[in-house]
């Protein structure tokens, strides 16, 4: 949906510039499955689109 690599997503999460993941596997293991709330990802995409529009204006 974003086209970002896993490493980029986690780096941006750490920097606070991408929504935090939600643990859906109930495990502390590094390979535990995670997901992101769709509304948060859609909001993040909208922010990016708005930022692009503001730069072009």
TrEMBL record:
Domain of life per record: Bacteria
What InterPro entries does the annotation carry?
AlpA (IPR010260)
Kindly give the Pfam families that the UniProt entry links to this protein.
Answer: Phage_AlpA (PF05930)
This chain belongs to the protein called Transcriptional regulator, AlpA family
